[in-house]
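Form 7-S
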Amino acid sequence: MAKENLIPEVDIVIDQEAGVIREIKPEPKLRSKKAHEKRVNGAIYAILIAMSVIWLLPFILLVLQSFRVEYGGQVAYVIPKQFGLDNFKFILTETNFPRWYGNTLIIALFNSVLQTVIVLSVSYALSRMRFRGRKLFMKSVLVLGMFPGFLTMIALYTLLKNLGLTQEGAIPGLILIYCASSGMGYYISKGFFDTIPKSLDESARIDGATRFQVFLKIIMPLSKPIVIYTILMAFMAPWGDYVFASYVAFGKSDSYNVAVGLYDWVNTNDFQGYFTRFCAGGVLVAIPITALFLMLQKYYVEGVTGGAVKG
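Output:
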């Protein structure tokens, strides 16, 4: 048995008045409690590390596959033996991927601006104004939000087709659909506005400010987190929309977004060849979203937590 295990832990205290050094032995219960906490924390950290590895593994494999240059027949190993930029060069020069990427970027930019304006306006009105039918409207929107959006796909497609906003006109059609119902997502923004004291509005109104001036010059400068959160959510939506986008742009490759275009690549007989190109396209799609999250993560978290305080 090691001798150091037999030496008890002690705390040294200097008594300045008596001029002596005293040793105080900690209680055994306190030492056992600290040891128990260390074991529990170690187990929690081990579980979190394992979960992180499991969560990150698919993304790591996707990035590795995007740089794979081996083709021809079945590839039985996961880690590529040869790396290169062949997949990126192919999708950027010999496919419609740049067109799909541009379509999605245009939709995302318009959607982030228009949807942010609509959502924040509706949220401010419901948070600050009191009018007849306000509660009924909020309850009705809450009930309608429980129904999945694809139930209205046939009616929406018919409407867009009559307006000439399908296939060749799919891009403005998708922008219209994304923004038209965006006011129904007012919950988090309204909760954030509820946390801002109404006395600020009342003081500005006494000084002669209009409702719009109060909203623009007082509420908006205090609502930076929720504004950034709304912009991020609106910008992300078009990048991952496949069902409705494929429905509106059906049969017209030039009107596809990246989700529809990339799905066509993996839905071919040459799965082995196009899968690596699909991975390369996925990496390019993730770049703008990842960059935005890294730059605006602080405000994103503040917007979510701030909007969850009051309903």
